[in-house]
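Please fill in the sequence for the structure shown.

STRUCTURE ENCODING:
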């Protein structure tokens, strides 16, 4: 056993059990310990591939304390693989604290490429892929959610969100309110599974489709929002959110001036962005 162990970041399938690499299976079988978000869930995957490695839990609620224990084990020469319930760990999943602590302790962190819902959805959605913005889950609270969405008003690149079946219809409704019913969306649902579906259309069309049949709202979703094609602005999304909020209460000139001062931007740029919003 080497002096210090390594931490392997190992993606697991997002639906189709066959979507795991040969290298991932080898590493999972070879390491001394697998840190998993939900050990009972991951046991099924390991049993499917006849992997006997011991599991230990690492989830949002115990990560800060568990990370310390795992670092000690790594320093004793134990090799550990980190997995999550599905897809790539750390992508809207636990592991960030463990990885930063490993890096700080000069422990090697070895990433394996593999399944991830965001790239799986993007590569087949038919929206521009040259640049994109991944936002994870939207905030649950309405005001914070609307603020994030307002940041997309002039965003020129494709934005991508994870969303739960319970909230998908309401989120599309919120998009209609904030971005307008004609913004192009893609709903990428049940990726890699039997009922994989891509539904593309305006936000109005997508909302109507979701309401047309309760089955349409079931399953896991990646929501892709097309960029604003008319937008050429250099205004960062955070500044755009503030501008939109202030514009509800103040004249554009004043809203632009306050936002410009807060973000050290030019007043004219903000003023023009505000005018573009009202076009
Ligand atoms: N780490 C994962 C990854 O690499 O994609 C994401 C974990 S996050 C907790 C779970 C969310 O990812 C789901 O709520 C859904 O939005 C998205 N997701 C995961 N699997 C999916 C699938 N098969 N089809 C569509 N979306 C999926």
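FILLED IN BY: designer on duty
SEQUENCE:
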């Amino acid at each position: 056993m080497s002096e210090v162990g390594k931490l392997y970041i190992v993606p697991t399938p997002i639906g189709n059990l066959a979507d795991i690499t040969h290298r991932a299976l080898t590493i999972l079988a070879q390491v001394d310990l697998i840190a998993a978000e939900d050990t009972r869930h991951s046991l099924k995957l390991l049993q499917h591939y006849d992997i006997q490695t011991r599991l230990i839990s690492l989830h949002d609620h115990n990560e800060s304390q568990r990370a310390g224990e795992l670092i000690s084990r790594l320093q004793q020469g134990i090799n550990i693989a980190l997995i999550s319930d599905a897809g790539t760990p750390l992508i809207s999943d636990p592991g960030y604290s463990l990885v930063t602590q490993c890096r700080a302790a000069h422990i090697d962190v070895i990433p394996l490429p593999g399944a991830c819902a965001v790239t799986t959805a993007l590569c087949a959605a038919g929206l521009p892929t040259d640049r994109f913005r991944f936002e994870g889950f939207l905030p649950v609270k309405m005001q914070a959610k609307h603020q994030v969405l307002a940041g997309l008003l002039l965003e020129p690149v494709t934005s991508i969100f994870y969303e739960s079946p319970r909230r998908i219809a309401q989120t599309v409704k919120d998009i209609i309110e904030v971005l307008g019913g004609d913004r192009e969306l893609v709903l990428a649902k049940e990726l890699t599974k039997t009922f994989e579906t891509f539904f593309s259309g305006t936000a109005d069309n997508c909302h109507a489709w979701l309401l047309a049949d309760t089955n349409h709202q079931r399953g896991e979703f990646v929501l892709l929002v097309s960029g604003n094609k008319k937008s050429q602005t250099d205004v960062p999304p955070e500044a755009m959110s503030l501008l939109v909020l202030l514009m509800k209460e103040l004249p554009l000139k004043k809203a632009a001036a306050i936002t410009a001062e807060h973000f050290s931007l030019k007043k004219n740029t903000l003023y023009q962005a505000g005018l573009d919003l009202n076009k």
